[in-house]
Hints:
Layout: H1 10-13, H2 18-30, H3 37-44, E1 48-58, E2 61-71, E3 79-85, H4 91-107, E4 113-119, H5 128-144, E5 153-157, H6 163-176, H7 203-215, H8 219-224, E6 235-239, H9 243-254, E7 258-263, E8 268-270, H10 277-287, E9 297-299, E10 312-315, E11 334-336, H11 345-353, E12 357-359, H12 361-364, H13 367-381, H14 390-408, H15 414-421, H16 426-451, H17 458-477
Parallel strand pairs: 3-4, 3-5, 6-7, 6-10, 10-11, 11-12
Antiparallel strand pairs: 1-2, 2-4, 7-8, 8-9
Helix pairs in contact: 2-4, 2-17, 4-17, 5-6, 7-9, 7-13, 7-16, 13-16, 16-17
Glutamic acid binds at residues 80-82, 104, 156-158, 188-189, 340, 365, 368-369, 372.
Amino acid sequence: MATKTAPVNLNEQREHSFFNDVLQYFDRASAYLDHPSGVLEQIKYCNSVYRMKFPVKIDGKIEVIEAYRAEHSHHKLPTKGGIRYSIHVNQDEVMALAALMTYKCAIVDVPFGGAKGGIKISPRKTSPEVLEAVTRRYTAELIKKNFIGPGIDVPAPDYGSGAREMAWIADTYSAFFPTELNAIACVTGKPLSHGGIQGRTEATGLGVYYGLKEAFSKKEDVKQWGLTPGLEGKTVVVQGLGNVGYYAAKFMHEAGAKVIAICEYDATIYNPKGIDPDKLLEHKKATGGTANFPGAKTIKENTAGLEIECDILIPAALENQIHSGNAKHIKAKVIAEAANGPVTPEAEKVLLKKGVYIIPDIYLNAGGVTVSYFEWLKNLSHVRFGRMEKRYEARMNHNILETIEKASGSRINRVQKELIERGADERDLVYSGLEETMINAYNTIRDRYKSTKGMPDLRTATFASAIDKVAISYQNLGIFP
Ligand code: GLU
């Protein structure tokens, strides 16, 4: 029997490859490097990709789950990267994200190779019981193939996963290796009660804020973007009110920037006078969505916010959000890539021509993995940061203040005293380490951009800097015969 089919739209059929985008960025940056082509070839592709399928009972029925773990580069161990829970997970995406992790770690001097995992499941539509069963089974599959371990490969949260899933992973791993002293260092982003670290939850959003603060402190750059130094008063649009988007919006709001629009999956919320991200999140929790947030305009089109005129656009959701279709409508002066791969290479060409300054993902969203590194260090040292020195520091500061008071004959007021005397606790140290990391890394990539003849943009400079570090590391290791 003949069946009628709709005419094929070749453009729609041709799937966009995220990994291909990363390869394009890699090639563009490689042109500014002088490493043997074999070394570059070794870095470029994923070293190992594990594609698995396993059965799970859901409502009495056996369903087969598809999942992945890609390890991009083993120049440093362990490899590191989150696990994405999404129905759109596929091998191309996981490989692209694993590659970005390698470059991200290199940029912020976190001594890990890059990896990424993905489980093809919709966390919003799946019960916690099923999610737990899937997570534990996924972990067991990783163990079987040696794709997890404190010195092998250390997962973390990503889109659709959080501390709860990481606790299940740590618990499953510990059950398989009950005598391994460092077992809980097999995963980061865990709850505080299970070896997590203060500041990990907000780390990516906080890193975005520190990065922007540093970028906006450079007078001559800011002038070129047609803006004034500092974040205060800057108009900001954020795409995504998930973990990264919410915290990026919150820290920007607290720094005095005006968050005029937030796009979520159900709508764009717009208020030219500014939106308080905490209030919007409360509204989302109470109503299940952001639409109809009191005092703001609800625009049904959830990507409409991307095209609103603003100083800083922060895409903090998924890849491929600013593409050749909407790039010409973007009116932001600076794009701060809080998500991984939110701007396609085609869109980037259009934006750069318009003079938009793009702060690339592999630098700007590296706050998450930076604090994951701190968590891993904490787990390996089996002691919380600040535990040994906090009180000692406070006592020493107290003694210094007392000496100053005695010598000067004048008293320091109580509020000031408490502020100066206080010893640093874990959160203080994590924030300080993250701020230092983001500042240093920004200056490194900016210098590379400014000082390399013909360097076209900050992303290319950032990739060049990252590839350089990985290449040097491979070359120093030598080739195993
Ligand atoms: N999933 C996060 C990222 O893409 C964090 C990775 C990690 O902490 O290992 O950077």
